[in-house]
Design goal:
This protein is mainly beta. The protein has one domain: Jelly Rolls (Sandwich), CATH 2.60.120.430. It contains 1 helix and 13 strands; from the N terminus they run αβββββββββββββ. The chain has a 7-stranded antiparallel beta sheet with strand order 2-5-12-7-8-10-11, with no helix packed on it. It is globular. The relative contact order is 0.26.
Length: 176
């Protein structure tokens, strides 16, 4: 029996850690919107908990006045990671591409990012953290991919270099 107990202690936990679970009791004020208006653009994103209890990120992006993006972000206490971790997003998109972005330090000027495509149906997007690459203002940096032991900010951004409306419904974000 003692050997069996030690065996289970040595097996890594396969339990996912919830980063954010969107539901009717979620506090949307924990999320902030960052649009291109910070740089003179005219895009407009909105974020709310919809009638079904899911997070809904919607709005429009325009390239007018050097604009072109809308994003939502959430900062939290550090979440520990390893190179084997994956971030999973359970969502329903609109067939458009979005970026997942994380910061290992909220004061960093750059984020680690990856682009994912939505299908228009409910789906689970799973992204290995080691695949996230460093980027600043749309430029890939000459730094290694994500290799930190923690992160403290997560963002979702749309910026496809064209004028478009968007709608992304979020159910859950987890670390596996």
């Amino acid at each position: 029996m003692k050997i069996m107990y030690l065996f289970f202690l040595l097996i890594p936990s396969m339990q996912a850690q919830t980063i954010y679970d969107f539901n009717r009791n979620s506090n949307v004020s924990e999320w902030s919107i960052v649009d291109d208006v910070v740089m003179g653009g005219r895009s407009n994103g909105n974020f709310e908990i919809n009638g079904d209890g899911h997070g809904e990120f919607s709005g429009y992006v325009t390239t007018e006045n050097n604009g072109g993006f809308s994003s939502i972000r959430c900062q939290f206490e550090k979440i520990s990671t390893t190179q084997d971790n994956k971030i999973s997003l359970i969502l329903k998109g609109d067939g458009k591409e979005y970026q997942l972005r994380i910061k290992d330090n909220v004061r960093s000027y750059y984020s680690y990012i990856i682009t994912f495509k939505t299908s228009g149906e409910w789906q689970k997007i799973t992204i290995p953290v080691k695949d996230l690459y460093p980027s600043f203002r749309g430029r890939t940096l000459d730094l290694p991919n994500y290799n930190s032991s923690s992160f403290e900010e997560i963002s979702i951004l749309i910026g496809n270099k064209k004028k478009e409306t968007f709608r992304l419904i979020l159910d859950k974000i987890e670390l596996e």
